[in-house]
Amino acid sequence: MQAKKRYLISLLTGAFLVLLFYFGGGVPGPAATGSRSRHGYSRPEQPWPHFSDPLQHFSPWDQSDTEEYNVHISPRQKRDVNSSVYKGKRCRMQSCFDFSLCQRNGFKVYVYPQQKGEKISESYQNILSTIEGSRFYTSDPGQACLFVLSLDTLDRDQLSPQYVHNLKTKVQSLPLWNNGRNHLIFNLYSGTWPDYTEDLGFDIGQAMLAKASISTENFRPNFDVSIPLFSKDHPRTGGDRGYLKYNTIPPFRKYMLVFKGKRYLTGIGSDTRNALYHVHNAEDVVLLTTCKHGKDWQKHKDARCDKDNAEYEKYDYREMLHNSTFCLVPRGRRLGSFRFLEALQAACVPVMLSNGWELPFSEVIDWNTAAVIGDERLLLQIPSTVRSIHQDKILALRQQTQFLWEAYFSSVEKIVLTTLEIIQDRVLQQTSRSNLMWNSHPGGLFTLPHYSSYLGDFPFFYAELGIKPNPKFTAVIHAVTPLVSQSQPILKLLVSVARSQYCAQIIVLWNCDKPLPAKHRWPATSVPIIVIEGENKVMSSRFQPYDSIISDAVLSLDEDTVLSTTEVDFAFTVWQSFPERIVGYPARSHFWDNNKERWGYTSKWTNDYSMVLTGAAIYHRYYHFLYSHFLPSSLKSMVDQLANCEDILMNFLVSAVTKLPPIKVTQKKQYKETMMGQSSRASRWADPDHFAQRQTCMNKFASWFGGMPLVHSQMRLDPVLFKDQVSILRKKYREIERL
Amino acid sequence: MCASVKYGSRGPALIPRMKTKHRIYYITLFSVVLLGLIATGMFQFWPHSIESSAEWSLDRRSVHDAPLVRIPMSSPIPERGDLSCRMHTCFDVYRCGYNPKNKIKVYIYPLQRFVDEVGVPISSTGLSREYNDLLSAISDSDFYTDDVTRACLFIPSTDVLNQNSLRIRETAQALAMLPRWDKGMNHLLFNMLPGGPPDYNTALDVPRDRALLAGGGFSTWTYRQGYDVSIPVYSPLSAEVDLPERQPGPRRYFILSSQTAIHREYRVELERLKEENGEALLLLDKCSNLSQGLASVRKRCYKGQVYDYPQILQESSFCVVLRGARLGQATLSDVLQAGCVPVIMADSYILPFSEVLDWKRASVVIPEEKLPEMYTILKSIPHRQVEEMQRQARWFWEAYFSSMKAIGMTTLQIINDRIYPYAARTYEEWNNPSVVKWSSVNSPLFLPLIPPRSPGFTAVVLTYDRIESLFRVITEISKVPSLAKLLVVWNNQNKSPPEAIDGLSLDQTHMVERSECINKFASVFGTMPLKVVEHRADPVLYKDDFPEKLKSFPNIGSL
Question: Coiled-coil segments, which residues (chain A) (predicted)?
Answer without folding.
Answer: none
